[in-house]
Amino acid sequence: MDKHTIAPIQSKDREVFMDVLRGFAILGILIANLTVGGLGWGPNRVESSPFLLPELDKQLNFLYAMFIEGKFYSIFSLLFGWGIALQIQRGLDKGSDALPTIRRRLFFMLLLGFGHILIWPGDIVLFYAMLGFLLLPLRRFSDRADYGCSVDLLTNSIICCKNAVGHGERACQFPTFNRGKCI
To answer: Residue 177: which of 119, 110, 109 has the closest Cα?
Structure first.
């Protein structure tokens, strides 16, 4: 095989920690999505009864958002960026350009996301693909510019979450699409 060819990585060269962390994040996302699937529990459940404990529900919903939604999606997002950076670095180490392969994968994710959003309103694959295309040019920015972009994005995310809390919306939630409307 030519040294300039991009090929799947051999098992011995895989980042085991990254694979384990990805599996952990996917398990957490599965747990988070169980509440959306209508299993009758979680923050989407609405019921009233004199035997329910609304204060405890509020606390548990906060813990759910903090430790399930807030952490596992963040870990998975970090791994997405790390994976792209690793592909670019391995391409550079081999003396080849990994960008055509990354763009092809992002395009496939985009198509998959468009199809998936039709059956699952909380699809994130489409969002990752769009962000992947937007973030590819950032690899050429200086470290200082990348740091500034990340601080700006994080600050804006915190402001958006803070503003959402007082308006009856769930805080820090990815936008979901319902019949073409972002909610």
So the answer is: 119
> Would you say how long the chain is, in residues?
183
| Whether 175 contacts 130, CB under 8 Å | no
Computed from CA positions of residues 72, 183, 113, 78, in that sequence, does the dihedral angle turn out positive or negative? negative
Question: Which pair of tokens denotes residue 146?
Answer: 């990348």
Q: What's the CA gap between 126 and 118, in Å, rounded?
A: 11
Instruction: Read off the pLDDT of residues 4-55 as tens digits, 9 standing for 90 and up.
Output: 556 667 777 778 888 888 888 888 878 777 766 555 555 555 566 566 777 7
Is residue 122 within 8 A of residue 111, CB to CB? The reply is no
pTM of the model: 0.65
Q: Check if the beta carbon of residue 113 is closer than 8 Å to that of residue 125.
A: yes
H or E element that contains 182 = strand 181-182
Q: Which amino acid is at 110?
A: L
Distances (CA, A) of 130 to 12, 17, 27, 113, 118: 31, 26, 24, 10, 17
CB of 161 closer than 8 Å to CB of 169? no
| CA-closest candidate to residue 75, choices 131, 118, 19, 123 | 19
